[in-house]
């Protein structure tokens, strides 16, 4: 390709200046993309590509009209692109183009998505990490630092909670490819490698001071936290450099420490399906189930509560009391929700005002929403229950009078239905500004003069077919019918001849036309100035807007919790000291929506801290355990819970380990992942935590698995001492209850009659007493001798913790014994010759151990092979169709043997 010159050359030169993915360059009334950018944009947005030739070469070109840029830009950025915008400025000798801003996924003000939109920076400092996350659409800004044994895990957990749209890795994070990969895996964020200098300590601190004031780092307690400050400074520098004015709304620095939050690692958030299901769907998540908010800000707050449960009893009681009051005052609750449903997204409007992108409609929406605060306060004050609850503090937290004043000011200023553009006038009411009124009056007088011109001219010249009108090409004109065209006075200057008429103009009309144009321009300019001033006044009140927005969001979130509680008959949990978790007739908050749910009790306390949950596959073990975790979590966001009654000892963390289906899909070893998760729990959980283990050790051979599960149980019981629910199919573990003080057994009951298992969904004390795996094998048609024999094998495994290898076809007495405790065969009565063979074949997990006859020869090989396979087969993990096929194979093998 020859070097491009002209407009394409200018485009390519500007593209060199930016590290953005795409460049939109203004060319008159269009923003154009050229070359590869044109292809990309056309692909993404379904635009037409044309060819632009430039000095013998031809370049793809795609463009959008200037006024339509925002929606296209938003769509591109929401797809993850960073887009630079070059505007055209008039200069004395023509025009100039320069990049004025870069719009990125983390700095997009005009987002169409109601969810929070975080831009996060991550730095490494010593063994820990600093994280800062800003949502420029609402002005929220959080910083924190994480450390500890698994600081990388803690970092990923933070990122998972923010779910950022864009991440800025600091220099040392950038160098760590493995960590970057994990960030990519855990988030959907665009990773942007931003200038390393902005992460430098001195510069970052300076930037933070500039934004939040000199003493803020001290007052929020991060002055010594270099990692947090570096991350915060980098975010601020980046937002500023994108040039969109988005920093103006970021006025409050918020920090949070682990001590008031319940630790919820990313795995647990996913396992408990808080905001999306394991399959990644929103519907079916806890949030989707309990969300009845009527505003997007309320929805954002509620989902923030869910991923950040609290430990402060005071805060939780405050929310509980508010929810309780709202559940009781049904009428007032509905009124309040009705009021709130008229609210716009005030936090976002504040950001738009601050960045200068708000139009007159936006300011009216600000006014309308501000005016709701006094109305909400009225509803609350009007009911004793509500007035005496923390709800009144919430509304009192925002300055009601200032809100009403600003709302009134905006209402008085702006017309009811202002145009979408702010440069062409028509925004302000009469009486707002004298100079404007004067212009409007002159304008109206001029229009009036024109509107009555036809009457005057008809009368003066006695012409009947005369009218005054305007169009784009001719401007204002006087039109006279053909028959009278010759009767017009001399001053009528012809401008156009039509089929049936003639068009004229006169000097006074031309004069008025110029006056009107001048006045319209003056009006547009003046109104634009006035509007900017007004918008700045609103921007100056960003904090007020955020306070009011926050108060309305909180009322909405609490109203939502109350609504869900009432509709689903939830109850207020008692928050207690200590480790009790005492739930009567509890239900799973999500499952109860779609199933006729069988409620269950759960009783745990200091002395009964570890429950081993057994029961057939699909009986409801997982549901029971998740229910316990979700009730605890709901209690710790201040919500009511699905139970007849509940006493909940507050926890400092919830840890779960459940079947790792998604990791399997990602091609990671399930067993490795399982063990990593277990390891994390054993390291991180404390005696104040809640631990949910849904099967441990399944990913490996049976004896490995049992051993790990056994040891983990002991360790949690003795060392970690966390409140734990452990579902296992290793029946052997139930015996631990006899030896470990605080361990107890419960099981999910199932009933069996006529060869059918009926799940009762009821949880009872004690362990299960049977193996349902073999039962399923029986139901599936495995030949009776195999089923009977496997029952026998199992019986012995349980009772004697040892299994003898049965000799010969005639079922002769014991020859070799596989001892569970040693994991190898003991050769009791077996002949010496047999020993070598047996030892060779026996392995630690027993899976490959062959049955050995008296003479040392392998006996009944087909049946023995089938038995081995049966023992190894994991019924729970095998799809029914495969199970049937396997059984058919066995039957064929056994048949073959008979021949
Ligand atoms: P497990 O963990 O024992 O394999 P699950 O907890 O996955 O079993 O539950 C199996 C099915 O039973 C699920 O579809 C679940 O919705 C349903 N279920 C579980 N507990 C109950 C209950 N108490 N009442 C009604 N249905 C339940």
Automatic annotation (TrEMBL):
<keyword id="KW-0234">DNA repair</keyword>
<dbReference type="InterPro" id="IPR027417">
    <property type="entry name" value="P-loop_NTPase"/>
</dbReference>
<dbReference type="GO" id="GO:0003684">
    <property type="term" value="F:damaged DNA binding"/>
</dbReference>
<dbReference type="InterPro" id="IPR007695">
    <property type="entry name" value="DNA_mismatch_repair_MutS-lik_N"/>
</dbReference>
<dbReference type="GO" id="GO:0006298">
    <property type="term" value="P:mismatch repair"/>
</dbReference>
<dbReference type="Pfam" id="PF01624">
    <property type="entry name" value="MutS_I"/>
</dbReference>
<dbReference type="InterPro" id="IPR036678">
    <property type="entry name" value="MutS_con_dom_sf"/>
</dbReference>
<dbReference type="InterPro" id="IPR007860">
    <property type="entry name" value="DNA_mmatch_repair_MutS_con_dom"/>
</dbReference>
<feature type="domain" description="DNA mismatch repair proteins mutS family">
    <location>
        <begin position="689"/>
        <end position="705"/>
    </location>
</feature>
<dbReference type="InterPro" id="IPR017261">
    <property type="entry name" value="DNA_mismatch_repair_MutS/MSH"/>
</dbReference>
<comment type="function">
    <text>This protein is involved in the repair of mismatches in DNA. It is possible that it carries out the mismatch recognition step. This protein has a weak ATPase activity.</text>
</comment>
<dbReference type="Pfam" id="PF05190">
    <property type="entry name" value="MutS_IV"/>
</dbReference>
<dbReference type="InterPro" id="IPR000432">
    <property type="entry name" value="DNA_mismatch_repair_MutS_C"/>
</dbReference>
<keyword id="KW-0067">ATP-binding</keyword>
<feature type="binding site">
    <location>
        <begin position="615"/>
        <end position="622"/>
    </location>
    <ligand>
        <name>ATP</name>
    </ligand>
</feature>
<keyword id="KW-0238">DNA-binding</keyword>
<dbReference type="InterPro" id="IPR016151">
    <property type="entry name" value="DNA_mismatch_repair_MutS_N"/>
</dbReference>
<dbReference type="InterPro" id="IPR045076">
    <property type="entry name" value="MutS"/>
</dbReference>
<dbReference type="InterPro" id="IPR036187">
    <property type="entry name" value="DNA_mismatch_repair_MutS_sf"/>
</dbReference>
<keyword id="KW-0227">DNA damage</keyword>
<comment type="similarity">
    <text>Belongs to the DNA mismatch repair MutS family.</text>
</comment>
<protein>
    <recommendedName>
        <fullName>DNA mismatch repair protein MutS</fullName>
    </recommendedName>
</protein>
<dbReference type="GO" id="GO:0030983">
    <property type="term" value="F:mismatched DNA binding"/>
</dbReference>
<dbReference type="Pfam" id="PF00488">
    <property type="entry name" value="MutS_V"/>
</dbReference>
<dbReference type="GO" id="GO:0005524">
    <property type="term" value="F:ATP binding"/>
</dbReference>
<keyword id="KW-0547">Nucleotide-binding</keyword>
<dbReference type="InterPro" id="IPR007696">
    <property type="entry name" value="DNA_mismatch_repair_MutS_core"/>
</dbReference>
<dbReference type="Pfam" id="PF05188">
    <property type="entry name" value="MutS_II"/>
</dbReference>
<dbReference type="Pfam" id="PF05192">
    <property type="entry name" value="MutS_III"/>
</dbReference>
<dbReference type="InterPro" id="IPR007861">
    <property type="entry name" value="DNA_mismatch_repair_MutS_clamp"/>
</dbReference>
<feature type="compositionally biased region" description="Low complexity">
    <location>
        <begin position="844"/>
        <end position="857"/>
    </location>
</feature>
<dbReference type="GO" id="GO:0140664">
    <property type="term" value="F:ATP-dependent DNA damage sensor activity"/>
</dbReference>
<feature type="region of interest" description="Disordered">
    <location>
        <begin position="824"/>
        <end position="860"/>
    </location>
</feature>
<dbReference type="InterPro" id="IPR005748">
    <property type="entry name" value="DNA_mismatch_repair_MutS"/>
</dbReference>
């Amino acid at each position: 390709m020859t070097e491009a010159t002209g407009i394409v050359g200018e485009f390519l030169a500007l593209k060199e200046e930016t590290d953005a993915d795409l460049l939109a360059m203004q060319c008159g009334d269009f923003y154009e993309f050229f070359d590869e950018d044109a292809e990309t944009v056309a692909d993404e947005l379904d635009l037409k590509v044309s060819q632009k030739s430039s000095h013998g070469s031809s370049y793809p070109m795609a463009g959008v009209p200037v006024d339509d840029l925002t929606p296209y830009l938003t769509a591109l950025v929401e797809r993850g692109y960073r887009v630079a915008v070059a505007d055209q400025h008039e200069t004395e000798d023509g025009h100039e183009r320069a990049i004025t801003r870069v719009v990125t996924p983390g700095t997009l003000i005009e987002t169409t998505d109601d969810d929070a939109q975080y831009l996060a920076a991550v730095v490494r400092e010593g063994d820990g990490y600093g994280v800062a996350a800003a949502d420029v659409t609402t002005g929220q800004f959080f910083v924190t630092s994480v450390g500890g044994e698994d600081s990388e895990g803690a970092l990923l957990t933070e990122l998972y909670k923010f779910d950022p749209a864009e991440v800025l890795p600091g220099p040392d994070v950038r160098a760590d490819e493995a960590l970057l990969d994990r960030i990519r895996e855990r988030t959907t964020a665009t990773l942007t490698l931003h200038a390393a200098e902005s992460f430098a300590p001195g510069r970052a601190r300076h930037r933070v001071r500039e934004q939040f004031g000199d003493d803020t780092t001290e007052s929020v307690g991060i002055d010594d936290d270099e990692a947090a400050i570096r991350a915060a400074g980098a975010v601020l520098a980046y937002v500023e450099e994108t040039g969109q004015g988005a920093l103006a709304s970021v006025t409050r620095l918020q920090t949070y420490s682990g001590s008031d939050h319940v630790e919820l690692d990313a795995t647990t958030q996913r396992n408990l399906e808080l905001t999306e299901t394991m399959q990644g769907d929103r519907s079916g998540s806890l949030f989707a189930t309990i969300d009845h908010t009527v505003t997007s800000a309320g929805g954002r707050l509620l989902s923030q509560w869910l991923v950040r449960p609290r430990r402060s009893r005071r805060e939780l009681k405050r929310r509980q009391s508010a929810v309780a009051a709202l559940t009781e005052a049904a009428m007032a609750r509905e009124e309040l929700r009705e009021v709130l449903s008229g609210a716009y997204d005030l936090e976002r409007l504040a950001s738009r005002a601050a960045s200068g992108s708000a139009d007159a409609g936006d300011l009216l929406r600000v006014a309308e929403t501000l005016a709701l605060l006094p109305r909400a306060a009225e509803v609350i004050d009007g009911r004793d229950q509500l007035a005496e609850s923390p709800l009144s503090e919430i509304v009192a937290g925002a300055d009601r009078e200032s809100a009403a004043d600003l709302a009134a000011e905006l209402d008085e200023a702006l017309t009811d239905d202002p145009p979408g553009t702010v440069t062409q006038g028509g925004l302000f009411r009469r009486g707002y500004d004298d100079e404007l009124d004067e212009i409007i009056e002159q304008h109206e007088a001029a229009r009036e003069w024109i509107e009555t011109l036809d009457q005057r001219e008809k009368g003066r010249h006695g012409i009947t077919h005369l009218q005054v009108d305007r169009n784009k090409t001719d401007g204002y004109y006087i039109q006279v019918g053909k028959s009278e065209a010759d009767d017009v006075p001399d001053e009528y200057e012809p401008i156009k001849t039509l089929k049936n008429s003639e068009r004229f103009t006169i000097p006074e009309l031309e004069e008025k036309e110029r006056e009107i144009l001048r006045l319209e321009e003056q009006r547009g300019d003046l109104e634009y100035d006035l509007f900017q001033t007004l918008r700045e006044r609103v921007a100056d009140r960003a904090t007020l807007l955020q306070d009011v927005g926050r108060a309305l969001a909180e009322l909405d979130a609490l109203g939502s919790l109350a609504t869900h509680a009432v509709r689903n008959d939830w109850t207020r949990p008692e928050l207690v000291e200590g480790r009790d978790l005492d739930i009567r007739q509890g239900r799973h908050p999500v499952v109860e929506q779609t199933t006729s749910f069988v409620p269950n009790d759960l009783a745990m306390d200091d002395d009964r801290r570890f429950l081993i949950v057994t029961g057939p596959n699909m009986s409801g073990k997982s549901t029971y355990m998740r229910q316990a975790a979700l009730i605890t979590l709901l209690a710790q966001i201040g919500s009511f819970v699905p139970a007849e009654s509940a006493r909940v000892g507050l926890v400092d963390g919830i840890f779960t380990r459940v079947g790792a289906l998604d990791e399997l899909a990602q091609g990671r070893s399930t067993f490795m992942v399982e063990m990593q998760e277990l390891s994390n729990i054993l390291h991180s959980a404390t005696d104040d935590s809640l631990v949910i283990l849904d099967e441990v050790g399944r990913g490996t051979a049976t004896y490995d698995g049992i051993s790990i599960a056994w040891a983990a149980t002991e360790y949690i019981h003795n060392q970690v001492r966390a409140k734990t629910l452990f579902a296992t199919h290793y029946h052997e573990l139930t015996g631990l209850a006899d030896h470990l003080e605080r361990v107890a057994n419960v099981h999910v009951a199932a009933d069996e009659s006529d060869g059918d298992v009926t799940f009762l969904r009821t949880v009872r004390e004690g362990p299960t007493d049977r193996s349902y795996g073999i039962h399923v094998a029986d139901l599936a048609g495995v030949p009776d001798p195999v089923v009977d024999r496997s029952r026998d094998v199992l019986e012995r495994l349980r009772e004697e913790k040892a299994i003898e290898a049965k000799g010969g076809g005639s079922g002769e007495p014991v020859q070799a014994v596989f001892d569970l405790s040693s994991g190898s065969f003991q050769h009791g009565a077996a002949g010496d010759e047999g020993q070598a063979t047996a030892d060779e074949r026996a392995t630690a997990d027993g899976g490959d151990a062959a049955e050995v006859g008296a003479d040392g020869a392998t006996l009944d090989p087909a049946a023995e092979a089938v038995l081995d396979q049966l023992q190894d087969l994991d019924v729970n993990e095998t799809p029914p169709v495969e199970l049937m096929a396997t059984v058919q194979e066995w039957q064929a093998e056994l048949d073959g043997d008979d021949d």
